[in-house]
Design a protein that fits this description.
The protein has 410 residues and is an alpha/beta fold. The chain is built from 13 helices and twelve strands.
């Protein structure tokens, strides 16, 4: 009875736990911790969305069980969004499914289509649910390194397919990427679609950050490539686009076969999101989109404050073109520590919490992820703290080198 459950045992140790525990202890001791760790939007949901929720929740008919695949009005709104944003026609009846956040959708689709021992190709580093959703479903993972860039992504993917036994059943793509913030053009997707069609491999695309971009170029949907429709499901979420993380509402669109499998699986395990939440989500997608641009500009201002502040501290980090994150390579003198120990040191000595890159895969261990989840003033304070931390540690290293030199000359 003391043995750990098989599926739980497959999960690696939760590397964020140590940083979270340190953060809790520091706050309990009265320290002012600037938390840039979790990607948890800090601003309120736009008022017109909240008002629609309140209106819907006052109707007692909405308190009954909902529909696991989503209410028709929301699926129509999803279809309209895809037409408006990507010029892609989605059948709301057969090609759209509402999910309780994109994370739930990915995890349930993994359960629906995976047999034990199936091989899944997943970028590394990656948002944890991408590999772990399939790991919990019994799949074997094959990682595609992306930390050095995407120039060789297709070649690496092709090599992985050729050398995988059994043949992979699916590949995951997610751009704009969490945590690496990488973005792609539509041309990036074309050879991936061709390759997967050739080998009979499904594509699962996650574009949760498609509306958080800063260069004037909206990220594409892989479904803009017509040939992708039969083999691809694309997931999105309202969490970041409309400041609705706690509402837990997202959706998947694409392949009728895969959406049908997801909807059937969900019909056995849930009754869908609370109907008033789905009604409010419909209002978000169909209503005025000024709030999305305001949210976008807010993250841009925070990004600029962080990038400029880190540069002033002597830590040069390229500005991301999208997402609500900054993916920063650890300064060279600290790189040997690894991302977990560096994150703990930053928390302890600079009172700034970040996410260690190792939590997103072994190829992320030379990086940390900053979440743009504090206002500009707090971000500037975090950068001042980091500047003092780097300066102080630079002095310590210089002192150690000087002492070492004196001993060697003695």
């Amino acid at each position: 009875m003391n043995e750990e459950f098989h599926r739980i045992k497959r999960l690696p140790p939760y590397v964020f736990a140590e940083v979270n525990a340190m953060k809790a202890r520091a706050r309990a001791a009265g320290e002012d911790i600037i938390d840039l760790g979790m990607g948890n939007p800090d601003q309120p949901t736009p008022p017109h969305i909240v008002e629609k929720l309140v209106e819907a929740v006052r109707n007692p008919k909405t308190h009954r069980y909902s529909m696991s695949r989503g209410i028709p009005g929301l699926r129509k709104a999803i279809s309209a969004y895809y037409k408006r944003q990507f010029d892609v026609d989605i059948d709301p009846e057969t090609e759209a499914c509402v999910t309780i956040g994109s994370k739930e959708g990915l995890a349930n689709l993994a359960q629906a289509i995976t047999s034990p021992g199936d091989v899944i190709l997943v970028p590394n580093p990656s948002y944890p649910i991408h590999p772990f959703g399939f790991m919990l479903a019994g799949a074997a993972l094959r990682h595609i390194p992306v930390v050095e860039g995407l120039d060789n992504f297709v070649e690496t993917l092709e090599r992985a397919i050729r050398h995988s036994v059994p043949k992979p059943i699916a590949v995951i793509v997610s751009f704009p990427a969490n945590p690496t913030t990488q973005t792609v053009t539509l041309d990036f997707y074309r050879p991936i679609v061709e390759l997967c069609l050739k080998h009979g491999i499904y594509i699962l695309s996650d574009i949760a950050y498609a509306e958080i971009y800063f260069d004037g170029n909206p990220p594409p949907s892989i479904l803009q490539i017509p040939e992708a429709r039969d083999i691809t499901v694309e997931f999105n979420s309202l969490s970041k686009t409309y400041n609705m993380p706690g509402w837990r509402v997202g959706f998947g669109v694409g392949s009728k076969k895969l959406i049908g499998a997801l909807a059937k699986f969900k019909s056995y395990v849930d009754y869908g999101a609370f109907t008033p939440i789905q009604v409010a989500a419909t209002a978000a997608l169909n209503g005025p989109q000024d709030c999305v641009e305001e949210i976008r500009q807010m993250y841009k201002a925070r990004r600029d404050a962080l990038i400029d502040g880190l540069a002033a501290a002597g830590w040069d980090v390229p500005p991301p073109a999208a997402t609500m994150f900054v993916w920063a390579r650890i300064p060279e003198p600290f790189r040997a520590l690894g991302s977990l120990e560096f994150s703990k040191l930053l928390l302890q000595e600079a009172q700034v919490a970040v996410s260690p890159g190792i939590g997103f895969g072994e190829y992320g261990d030379e990086h940390v992820r900053f979440g743009l989840v504090e206002n500009v003033q707090r971000i500037r304070q975090a950068c001042r703290n980091i500047r003092g931390f780097l300066h102080l540690n630079g002095q310590r290293r210089g002192s150690r080198r000087q002492k070492s030199g004196l001993r060697s000359n003695g």
